[in-house]
C-alpha cells in the first residue's frame, strides 16, 4: 500500500496555553481542508499542569501547590485527568474521522493511532504493549476513575511496560476531525505530581503515592538511562511512520497562521474564564 504524506511539526518548548491553542488551530485548519493530517511533537515551558476538559479545579486541584512549584496551568480541550508536563515529550495527531482504515469507534481509533507510540517504545528497546481491561469490573472502573491523576491507572489501549503505564493520552472529535494528544514520560517526579491534587485525607494521599509507584513508570526507569527529548522524537516519529504507514514531511507555520494560534490562545486557553470554568 502506498504511503500517505502527513505534515510533521516540532514546535519545541511553549507555554501550556500556546500548546493547546496550537492543537486547536491544527484541528480547525485540517477540518477546512487547509492542511493535511498532522503529527506534532512539543514540550512545555514552564513545566505545566494540564487538566481534562471536564475536571473541576476547585474540587480536584491544589492551586497553592501549582503556584509554589511555579507551574503553568491549562485546561485541555480533551477529556482525561491531570497531567504534569515536565520531563516528557508530548505528541498530537490530527486526522479526519473518515481517514482510510480509521475505525469509527473512539477506542478502536485510539488503538490505531497509539500504534505509533507502541512502535516508538519498541524503537527505544522497551517491550511495550496495550492495556486492555479484562473484566467487566475493570471496564466499569474506567468509566468512573478514582482520582484526578492521569497516571493513576491505565485506560483502554494505554501503553504499558511490565504492567505499568508509560504514556497517557486523550482524544476529542470536533468538526469531523480526531485530535489525540498525550504525554510520553521521560522521567517522573512522583512527589511533585501528587502534591498538586486534593485528597480527602493524608491517608488517601499516601495510598495514591504508593499506588502511583506501582502503576506508572517513566522511560528513564525502564531503560536504565536518560533518554533525551531529541532521541525520543526520532524513535516515536519513526514509530508513527511505521504504524500508520505514512511519510512525514516537515511543515512550518506561516506568520499569519502563527498569529491565528496566538489569537486562540488569548481568547481561550490563556483566559481564566476557560481555565477555571469548573
Automatic annotation (TrEMBL):
* GO biological process entries: lipoate biosynthetic process; protein lipoylation
Enzyme Commission number(s): 2.3.1.181
**A GO molecular function for this record?**
lipoyl(octanoyl) transferase activity
Kinase listed as a keyword:
no
* Pathway in which the depicted protein is active: Protein modification; protein lipoylation via endogenous pathway; protein N(6)-(lipoyl)lysine from octanoyl-[acyl-carrier-protein]
Q: Name the UniProt key words of this record, in alphabetical order.
A: Acyltransferase, Transferase
Q: Which PROSITE patterns match?
A: BPL_LPL_CATALYTIC
Alphabetized Gene3D superfamilies for the sequence: Bira Bifunctional Protein, Domain 2 (3.30.930.10)
Taxonomic superkingdom: Bacteria
Show the stretches that span the lipid bilayer. none
Pfam families per the UniProt record, alphabetical: LplA-B_cat
Does Cell inner membrane show up as a keyword for this record? no
Site description Lowers pKa of active site Cys, residues in chain: 165
Active-site positions, per UniProt?
A: 150
On subunit structure and binding partners, the annotation says:
Monomer.
- Protein purpose: Catalyzes the transfer of endogenously produced octanoic acid from octanoyl-acyl-carrier-protein onto the lipoyl domain of GcvH, an intermediate carrier during protein lipoylation.
Can you tell me which family this protein belongs to?
Belongs to the octanoyltransferase LipM family.
Q: What is this protein called?
A: Octanoyltransferase LipM
Amino acid at each position: 500500500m502506498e504511503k500517505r504524506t502527513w505534515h510533521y511539526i516540532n514546535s519545541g518548548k511553549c507555554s501550556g496555553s500556546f500548546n493547546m491553542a496550537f492543537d486547536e488551530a491544527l484541528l480547525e485548519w485540517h477540518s477546512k481542508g487547509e492542511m493535511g493530517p498532522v503529527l506534532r511533537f512539543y514540550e512545555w515551558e514552564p513545566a505545566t499542569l494540564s487538566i481534562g476538559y471536564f475536571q473541576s479545579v476547585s474540587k480536584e486541584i491544589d492551586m497553592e501547590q501549582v503556584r509554589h512549584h511555579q507551574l503553568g496551568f491549562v485546561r485541555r480541550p480533551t477529556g482525561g485527568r491531570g497531567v504534569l508536563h515536565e520531563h516528557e515529550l508530548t505528541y498530537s495527531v490530527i486526522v479526519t474521522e473518515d481517514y482510510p482504515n480509521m475505525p469509527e469507534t473512539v477506542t478502536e481509533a485510539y488503538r490505531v493511532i497509539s500504534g505509533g507510540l507502541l512502535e516508538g517504545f519498541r524503537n527505544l528497546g522497551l517491550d511495550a504493549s496495550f492495556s486492555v481491561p479484562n473484566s467487566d469490573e475493570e471496564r466499569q472502573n474506567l468509566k468512573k476513575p478514582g482520582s484526578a491523576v492521569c497516571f493513576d491507572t491505565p485506560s483502554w489501549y494505554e501503553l504499558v511496560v511490565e504492567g505499568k503505564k508509560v504514556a497517557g493520552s486523550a482524544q476529542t472529535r470536533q468538526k469531523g476531525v480526531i485530535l489525540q494528544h498525550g504525554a510520553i514520560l521521560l522521567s517522573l517526579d512522583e512527589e511533585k505530581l501528587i502534591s498538586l491534587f486534593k485528597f480527602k485525607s493524608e491517608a488517601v494521599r499516601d495510598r495514591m503515592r504508593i499506588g502511583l509507584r506501582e502503576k506508572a513508570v517513566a522511560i528513564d526507569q525502564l531503560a536504565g538511562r536518560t533518554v533525551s527529548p531529541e532521541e525520543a522524537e526520532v524513535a516515536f516519529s519513526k514509530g508513527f511512520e511505521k504504524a500508520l504507514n505514512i511519510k512525514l514531511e516537515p511543515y512550518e507555520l506561516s506568520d499569519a497562521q502563527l498569529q491565528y494560534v496566538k489569537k486562540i490562545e488569548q481568547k481561550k486557553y490563556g483566559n481564566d474564564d476557560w481555565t477555571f470554568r469548573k
